[in-house]
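Dear Dr. H.,

I hope your travels went smoothly. While you were away I took the liberty of generating a structure for the chain from your last submission, since the lab meeting agenda had it listed for discussion. I wanted you to have the full record in hand beforehand rather than looking at slides cold. The sequence, exactly as received, is reproduced here:
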Amino acid sequence: MTIRILITDDHSVVRQGLRMFLGLDPELEVIGEAADGAEAVRLARELRPNVVLMDLVMPVMDGITAIGAIRREMPDVEVVALTSVLEDASVVGAVRAGATGYLLKDTDADELRRAVKAAASGQVQLSPQAASRLMREVRAPDSPEALTGRETDVLRLLAEGQANKEIARNLNIGEKTVKTHVSNLLAKLGVQSRTQAALHAMRIGLVAPDPTVDARQP
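The corresponding predicted structure, in token form, is as follows:
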């Protein structure tokens, strides 16, 4: 399956570079470009990408506001935040709004493509350092609705960094069923993204931050 991508950045040269890097991979297809957050929300509605690459500092509507709008309205669309500087407030803001991943703009092309594919497959990538920092800042409600046993199984595997396909194989269920369980558990936990759900799982001790999980993308 080709992964459909919407690029959002207010600098045309950045958008062109991203389009070129991503276009080298036959599994990835850039279906649109937006120059600000408001345009990104409109195009996401229109084009229904699998993944949005979202700059955070833009005119008209900033990236964090746009991430929140897309995730609330289109929870199946994953968002990877892009920024020039790794700053705590931006990381926390983006993840709280619902970003699945967070990348610096100087990320090399291979790493960028891996991050897009990971987001599209439902894979959470958290370094232990990022997890501990984010757990303090990004919280689920204190009394979320109780999960079923199967939803808890899905949450544990998701928090261990498994993609939807791996979760389906491990639990002997269909990939569509995994996606349904993920949607249900996000709603019950009152969070916007798999990353937030994984942080909740770590906070309650369902899983421990794993030093073997890819540390390049919080």
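Two observations you may find useful: The chain has two domains: 3-120, 134-203. Strands lie at 3-8, 28-34, 51-55, 78-83, 101-104.

With kind regards,
E. W.
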